[in-house]
Amino acid sequence: MGKKIQAVKGMNDLLPVEQKDFKLTSSFWQAFEDLIGSWMHRFGYQQIRTPLVEQTGLFVRSIGEETDVVGKEMYTFSDSNDSLSLTLRPEGTASCLRAVVEHNLLYNSPQKLWYMGPMFRRERPQKGRYRQFHQVGVEALGFEGPDIDVEMIVMTAALWKDLGILEHVTLELNSLGNREERAAHRQALVEYLIGHEAALDEDSKRRLHTNPLRVLDTKNPDLQQICNNAPRLIDYLGEASLQHYSQLKTMLDGLGIEYVENPRLVRGLDYYNMTVFEWTTDKLGAQATVCGGGRYDGLIEELGGKPAPSIGFAMGVERLLLLVQEYGSLSCQSAPDVYAMHQGEGASLQVMKYAQALREAGFSVLQHSGSQSLKAQMKKADGSRARFALIVAQDELDSGTVTLKDMQGSLGQTTLGASELLNTLQEWNSK
Ligand code: HAM
């Protein structure tokens, strides 16, 4: 027997059953995907699907060389044929924008797009943090806001409501201003942090020169005082940025959407400006952010397109579903309606015909495969959690009848003419 090969660390199989250390099942996931499709349709967004692999330069240019994602977490390899450097996508925004620019989608009108799929980051795996994880992302391209900023938040809040988790998440908001405002703040911040350099930890000393805003993100309790007293970006915002931010907040107030202003919210990717937001929860331990996004007004131009102010967000599907599973509600259909059993020569073929007719009428039918005893088949029917069992044995075959059994309720068992099967099943199903 060959040696077993295991999945790559931090990359999960999604199975029909719960695993010890990964409780999400494929039917729960499927129910979520179905909901996402209708949720996006409700808001009039269109789906885009891009390749899982892109040229490395796309992510370096958009996400930023100094970010953790680009600096430490990307799966990069060279394509042996033409020595091109390729990377498994660590997020969806860059790929989406690359496609939009490449196919000139913004030529006539702005675009409201969404995507869903696997992303790859070589992070240290733990509950809610994986090396292959999944995002649902939304990008609204060519809109100045702040009304579209509000739309992003309204959309996410509507989804949390559908999933029954609205009371378990908090909306955090901040504005990063424009490039010049950030540069002025950065300079003041660096000067301030240099004044406190001796007290900083190694990570912060490194970030001080590469990405000083991220120093404020530190979890080190000894640095909280220094961070609290650091120059605040909000004090460097000009009139237009402040106005955008305050209009956004006024609209959220008007809609009754609660938020917490977090002046330290900077996000981990370099392309953001103005509005940034995150939905966080205190129910998932360290991996608290279930969804994050913001404006990236300069990115399309950076990637070779005409300037188009834009905003988007992405949610981590694993994190979100772990939260929904424990605290929310999402009904999924994993059991078939009918388990179809057969015994005796010719019964299998006859059952196939009945099963097909029931499927055409909208029922899901799991047909027993193989030729076990009826007792063994009934055990399988039980295990499948089907609501009804359909039985065709020699007696039924000879008399042109079928036996129907209610496996979950109190309707019992009856034998009826084959032509009455569909009607009876519909009637039983509606009880
Ligand atoms: P992000 O904050 O890097 O933003 O990721 C979005 C979400 O993906 C996170 O809030 C988290 O829920 C989930 N996530 C990230 N890394 C992992 C991981 N290793 N394991 C599990 N879940 C993870 C972006 O990716 C931006 N592209 C969002 C965006 C779209 N901004 C504008 N448009």
TrEMBL record:
Gene3D superfamilies: Anticodon-binding domain, Bira Bifunctional Protein, Domain 2. It is found in: Cytoplasm. Keywords: Aminoacyl-tRNA synthetase, ATP-binding, Cytoplasm, Ligase, Nucleotide-binding, Protein biosynthesis. PROSITE patterns: AA_TRNA_LIGASE_II. Its EC number is 6.1.1.21. Homodimer. Residues 42-336 form the Aminoacyl-transfer RNA synthetases class-II family profile domain. It catalyses: tRNA(His) + L-histidine + ATP = L-histidyl-tRNA(His) + AMP + diphosphate + H(+). L-histidine binds at residues 91-93, 121, 135, 139, 267, 271-272. This is Histidine--tRNA ligase. The keyword Ubl conjugation does not apply. GO terms for biological process: histidyl-tRNA aminoacylation. The keyword Ribosomal protein does not apply. Belongs to the class-II aminoacyl-tRNA synthetase family. InterPro entries: aa-tRNA-synth_II, aa-tRNA-synth_II/BPL/LPL, Anticodon-bd, Anticodon-bd_dom_sf, His-tRNA-ligase, HisRS-like_core, HisRS/HisZ, HisRS_anticodon. One of its GO terms (cellular component) is cytoplasm. SUPFAM superfamilies: Class II aaRS ABD-related, Class II aaRS and biotin synthetases. It comes from Neisseria weaveri. One of its GO terms (molecular function) is histidine-tRNA ligase activity.
